[in-house]
Predict the structure.
Amino acid sequence: MSEKKEEQHTIDSPLRHYDEHLVDELRLQAADYLIGHGVVIIKRTKDDSRLIHAPAALLPSPWPKKLYMQAWTLIKDFNLLVHILNPNYEFITKTLDDVPDEFTQNLLKIYHQVHKEGIAQPIMLGIHRSDYMLHASSKTQETLTQVELNTISSSLPSLSTFISHLHKYLITKYNLVQDYPLEALPFNESQFNIPKAISTAHSLYGNPSAVVMMIVQAGERNVWDQRWIEYNLWEKHGVNVIRRTLGDVEERGTINDKGALVIDGKEISIAYYRAGYTPDDYPSDKEWAARLKIEKSKAIKCPSISYHLLGCKKVQQVLADESVLSSLIQDKDMVKRLLACFTGLYSMSGPEAKPMVDKAILNYKDYVLKPQREGGGNNIYNEDLKEALQKMTEKERGAYILMDRITPVPVHTKAIKEGQVAEVLAVSELGLYGCFIGDGDKVVMNEEGGVLLRTK
């Protein structure tokens, strides 16, 4: 007799049991609210492009308060961690120099060059987002587990704020507070906190007539998440923003005799990257030349090349080693808090990784293979992981890290996409924004930025 397969533990959202009429009312209200508040993206097809509202959970998904507060307390820790490691040239180079990944090595070339020539701008602006999932070790035990730390182009701060407001609007309008208590919903003002940090850094630059340059992708779909940062910077802080691609910077940008970055007659106070995190953003040498040009200027970078490199998966893997983290961070309580959110992270470099490679091939469902990439969609799972490890050479493996697979408890809920409601069995990923400004060794700002809860 075959053994009975254990049924997957899931959570039911109250929304799932609402009658069809109410769900349809919520759908109509949500679609109009999202479009009315600019929570939109561009949908492109072969023949045309059009605006649609961003997909969203129709009502909030659950997340344990204790574990939310644990993640919240880590925001300043991760901000400070990046700040402490930023001047540590030896750590960054030792960790990444041997990673056989062309993109990472191109970033490192810029890092080595500006370190050799001297850092033009000591002020650092970090808009980070640390992402977490809940690992269910049993039906009753969940632990907070970090997925990754994003140090470049931490997206969705504007849209997440509006979706938080949408949920409160629907809950109060339709009197759903018994199922969704308002006091349980996090206060989220990320679309205002991030412009505040950028404005503060802009003031430190010292030229009120300078402008913030947002580095964007050509053909960007998520324009309005970025535009709301621009609108709030102008309306609340009087700071002007221009949008340019890396190609624009190389073609029309110059560094003047005072070290300032100038493009189209405008001096740049801050280069705020909403692009540049993927190899696709560097289709030619021109884009790499632009990145170097920005780095060599006295413009404040968000992020600097060093901050960008500290978000690499290899750095995350190395820092998960208690002996390494303790040698770099003097605050023992901070070390303890950080280690508590790390899962198993394993090097794939060199012959010493072979036992772990063999283990992962045998137990391929228990792990995730992660490259040095941002932007999603790059991780390798299941049979693909097994096949990839069997085919890779030792050198090729070194471009990846291995991570214990996180197994969250799925939630039965409803989401809205292009005006239609779909019932989904989803997992949640919590992203918490951090805003940091450092000036040499000095901490100017270390603040919480807001929250993003994605339903996947």
Q: What stands out?
A: The longest strand covers residues 123-136.
